[in-house]
Amino acid sequence: xxxxxxxxxxxxxxxxxxxxxxxxxxxxxxxxxxxxxxxxxxxxxxxxxxxxxxxxxxxxxxxxxxxxxxxxxxxxxxxxxxxxxxxxxxxxxxxxxxxxxxxxxxxxxxxxxxxxxxxxxxxxxxxxxxxxxxxxxxxxxxxxxxxxxxxxxxxxxxxxxxxxxxxxxxxxxxxxxxxxxxxxxxxxxxxxxxxxxxxxxxxxxxxxxxxxxxxxxxxxxxxxxxxxxxxxxxxxxxxxxxxxxxxxxxxxxxxxxxxxxxxxxxxxxxxxxxxxxxxxxxxxxxxxxxxxxxxxxxxxxxxxxxxxxxxxxxxxxxxxxxxxxxxxxxxxxxxxxxxxxxxxxxxxxxx
Length: 351
Prior knowledge:
By secondary structure, the chain is mainly α. The chain has 18 helices and 2 strands.
C-alpha cells in the first residue's frame, strides 16, 4: 500500500530521530511548539524544515499513522512510544520519497511564522486592491482577523500610489518572485487568491484541481510560500510593496523570553543576575542559553563550558552516534546535562 504524504513525513521524522525521542516529539515539531526541547530536537535531528508546518495534525491522527506503520512492519517499538525504522521501512521511505519528494524550499523554522502573516496580508491586499480598481465596495473580506484588517487600512492610507499603479506594481513584484526559480509552480499559490468577482480556491479544492493528495499539496503550497518569503527578504529594494507585507524583520528566531535574557546578557549580566532580575529558575535561563546557541552562530558557549570539555563532549557524541544525553554523560566525567545540551546545540548538526 502506498504511503500517504503525512505517513511519509512521520516515517521520515522517525528515521531521523532513530528511536531517541517519543512519537509526540513529532507532534510538537509539526505544531511548532516553542519549547527548548522541541527547538533543540528540530536542529539536532535536522528536522527544521517541518517546524510548525502541520498544526492540524492531532495526537489521534499521529497515533493512527503510527499504528499503520507498525502493522506494515515499517517501524518497530524500542521502548514505550519510541520507534525505530526497519530495513523494510527504509526501503519504503526511499521509494515514497522518489515518487513524492519533500518540496525543496520547505523551511518551517526559518519562514513559517513570517509566511503566515505574509499570506494573510497578500491575499487580503490583492482582493481589496482589485475591488478598489473596479470601485466596488460590497464584498466579504477573505481575511477576518482584526489585526490583518487594521494593517490593510493603514497600508492603503500610507501608500501614495493610485489604485491602478498600486495594483500594477503589486502584480509585477509577485511575478518577479514567482518567476525567479524554475522549480516553483506559481499556480500552487495563485489559484488560492481572490479578486474582483473571482474567488480563490480552498486548500482542499486546490488539491483536487491539481489531482494531488491534500497533505502533499499543503506542503507544496507552504514550500512556495517559504520560497517567496525568503526571496522578498533577500531583495527588499526590488520588492518594496511585498516587503512591506512581511512585518517586522527578525534577525534571530528567538522566543520572546529568550530575547529578554539575551538583552540582559549583552548588558553584561551573569546567569545569577538574570535569575534575580527576571525572577526565573536557573533551568529556565539555561534553556534560553541553549536556544541562543542554536540560533546565533556568533554566540560563544566558552563561558559556560570549557573548551576542553566541549571537545570531550563532541568526541563522545560522535563515538556513540546518539543525541541521548545520558549515554554521552556516561563517557565524560564531571559534566552535567546542561553542558552537554549546550555543546550539542552549538555543534550538533556537525556531529
